[in-house]
Amino acid sequence: MEILKVNSVSPDLEEEIAMYDILVYDGDKHLYEFLEEAGRFIPKHLKQKVKFCKNINYSNPVTVSLKKDGETIELTEIPDLYTLLQKINNYKKDFREINTEDVVIVNSDDKKELFDTIQQFINLGINISVYSSKELEDREKVEKFSKNLNEFDEVLDKFYKKTLISNSKKR
Fold it and tell me: Hey, is 46 helix, strand or coil?
């Protein structure tokens, strides 16, 4: 899949996007404003063929954590993320088979970057978990606590059963 980055509308836009599957808008307007303006130059068949998203200039690199092999990769733009996810998905156009344990981590406390990332993945048809670094850290703490709680619950259950058995023998 070929990616075209544009930052403004031009009359040549139809010719430019005809060869691409994804158009990444890298300008200052909202994506919907760009699409309204660009709609005059893009025929209907291309509007249906091409996926559109807005580039995000991250304040810190975004980390993609691949659970399968424990690899982490840092990237700075949506096209780089898309290309990586496409590679992970063996260059299929359908992203429904992405490993659900793979995650994208936005290394910023800026919720706007987090929500913008999620929105752009929705625009591209990608279903992958996106977390802030703090949210992922909190999630891991809760999972660890839950695991320890389950182990503690098992120990209590064994103790309770053992106590019942010893009390029944005394009677």
Answer: helix
State the DSSP H helix or E strand holding residue 144, giving kind and residue range, or none if neither: helix 133-170
pTM of the model: 0.70
Triad 40, 45, 50: Cα angle to 5°: 85
- Tokens representing residue 118 in the block: 């999620």
Please give the angle made by the CA atoms of 113, 106 and 23, to the nearest 5 degrees: 60
The answer to whether 80 and 53 are in contact (CB under 8 A) is: no
Phi/psi of residue 81, nearest 5 degrees: -60, -45
Place of tokens 């009359």: 11
- pLDDT digits over 93-116, tens only? 555 555 556 677 788 878 888 898
| Interval 30-61: pLDDT, tens | 999 999 998 888 888 888 888 899 998 888 88
